[in-house]
Amino acid sequence: MNVFIVGVGLIGGSFAKDIKRLRPECKIYGIDTNVSHLREALDLGIIDVESSYDDLGVADMVIVSIPVDVMVTELPKILDAVNDDCVVFDGGSTKSLICKTLDSHPKRRNYLAAHPIAGTEHSGPSAAIENLYVGKTNIICEIEKTAFKLQEKALELFQQIGMRIRYMNPDAHDKHIAYVSHLSHISSFMLGKTVIDKEKNERDIFDMAGSGFESTVRLAKSSPAMWTPIFKQNKDNVVETLTEYIQNLQEFKQLLEKGDYTGIFNEMNDTNKIKEILNGIPLNKK
Amino acid sequence: MNVFIVGVGLIGGSFAKDIKRLRPECKIYGIDTNVSHLREALDLGIIDVESSYDDLGVADMVIVSIPVDVMVTELPKILDAVNDDCVVFDGGSTKSLICKTLDSHPKRRNYLAAHPIAGTEHSGPSAAIENLYVGKTNIICEIEKTAFKLQEKALELFQQIGMRIRYMNPDAHDKHIAYVSHLSHISSFMLGKTVIDKEKNERDIFDMAGSGFESTVRLAKSSPAMWTPIFKQNKDNVVETLTEYIQNLQEFKQLLEKGDYTGIFNEMNDTNKIKEILNGIPLNKK
Question: Which residues are listed as membrane-spanning (chains A, B) (predicted)?
Fold first, then answer.
């Protein structure tokens, strides 16, 4: 089987590593506009050969993991170039605009809209890791628009690499993911900014930072090139989550200013139930 | 050596575990108003014997790890009860009020004000773990007010369990810790609240949550009984950090509303330097 990875970074590269291990007969073709990333992916053995859209005609499967703004311009071209038995799926963190863009594409049946909820704060081919997807959720949108045999081809891979599948419509995906992913990133970036601004002349203050600060600010290491287009495409939902988050912070601040410590205790106590909720996330059961 | 642990939870219990391992000749006495915690600490082998303030006269070292509001009322009583060669140190997350309260205590020289920057989001004796303190920073305030021999006694222990020592005055401690610890907790609690409020009727939405959400919201599992008095004692500094954090979030939201994506990219890009800063935190070098 010929598998093409378009965008050989953390997400695409991790798919490639699992496929190479689980299906050694597969040949992995890499495509990337970043020439040094492509070379690095080859040197690391993540891909077998550097390739281009000209070769897409021989593809059995194409995995597209590029920033979501580029996704919108590139997925139509990729679909144009593949054969009828090829399945193309993406790993974009937004789904509405991508699905809308491809809705009337003549090869819409070759496309499967996916969002594997997995990753780290690192990026590039060197960030790719084996078993990244074990136990993680893969959200699939508009499954009914993908040809049945091509659904099967993609789902077999997802199952083999250990993912759980959830089906959702693109608008619901974008709305909910704004809360459980996009907002976390902004809260973390702005926490990092607040502390850096305050402590810029006192770097040794970070000696005081413990693992609590570290985990809360971890996502502030994420790639701006990847996240800017995500926030752009999901602007309305993200603005809504930010409005609610800021409102909650202001209320907490007012409780503190008023000296309402019973109120502060209750706010935290009510939120403690996140423990049980997080225990329900399968990735935490490992 | 007779070591007393007042408050046999995560912090006190973890000290006890390391002391038992490294200094098997020590006898560990436990004191706690929570009778079931005290029994649990005994059953888990964290302490050797249940005790009370009546026994404090035989103590060589007292480690006080209780909520910071109780610290203010209990530390004077503990100092009253110990002998002249006993060192008493605490693990409170605030230092100003505690130091001020003890400033004129006749046994001030027996007290060492400490804040070991270590912990997890869990609490109680069962949360105590060995080697919690390896490579972590211990902030010590007003070292000059502790008797020299008693400084030595405490510092020997900190060194033996692998801590790095930093000296700071209590007001500076409380100001900076508001940024690198207290604010992280509030941002995490309010993130948890925002998402729970929105998704309360759709629990399966948390299936969509990945490790990014999990790490950002981890601190929202923390104990409200411990954190409410911390925020109360450090109110002014915490209100200041919250004001700046909310301001940064509002500015980010405005950039998004205006569609200034270059501005959004730059905000994130500038904050990416948190990578290098965090790499400077020794606990990450493990």
Answer: none
User: Which of B176, B189, B269 lies nearest to residue A271, judging by beta carbons?
Assistant: B189
The residue extents of the domains of chain B are: 2-169, 173-285
Which chain B residue shows the shortest CA-CA distance from A254? B239
Beta carbons within 10 angstroms of residue B250's beta carbon = 15
- Identical fold between B2-169 and B173-285: no
Query: Using a CB-CB distance cutoff of 8 angstroms, which residues of chain A are in contact with residue B208?
Result: 117, 137, 139, 166, 173, 176-177, 180-181
Q: Give, for all 286 residues of chain A, the pLDDT tens digit.
A: 999 999 999 999 999 999 999 999 999 999 999 999 999 999 999 999 999 999 999 999 999 999 999 999 999 999 999 999 999 999 999 999 999 999 999 999 999 999 999 988 889 999 999 999 999 999 999 999 999 999 999 999 999 999 999 999 999 999 999 999 999 999 999 999 999 988 776 666 777 888 788 889 999 999 999 999 999 999 999 999 999 999 999 999 999 999 999 999 999 999 998 888 777 654 443 3
- Whether A32 and A4 have beta carbons less than 8 Å apart is answered as no
Domain A173-285: give its CATH superfamily.
6-phosphogluconate dehydrogenase C-terminal like domain (1.10.3660.10)
Residue type, B154: A
Hey, are the CB atoms on B214 and A270 less than 8 Å from each other? no
Chain A CB contacts of B194 under 8 Å are 179, 183, 241, 244-245, 248
Query: Rounded distance, CA A70 to CA A4, Å?
Result: 17
B241 vs A194: CB contact, 8 Å cut-off? yes
Residue in chain A nearest B179 by alpha carbon: A195
Domain A2-168 has CATH 3.40.50.150: no
Q: B31: Cβ–Cβ under 8 A, 6 or more apart, which residues?
A: B4, B5, B6, B7, B8, B38, B51, B52, B53
Class of domain B2-169: alpha beta
d(CA B105, CA B76) in angstroms, rounded, equals 7
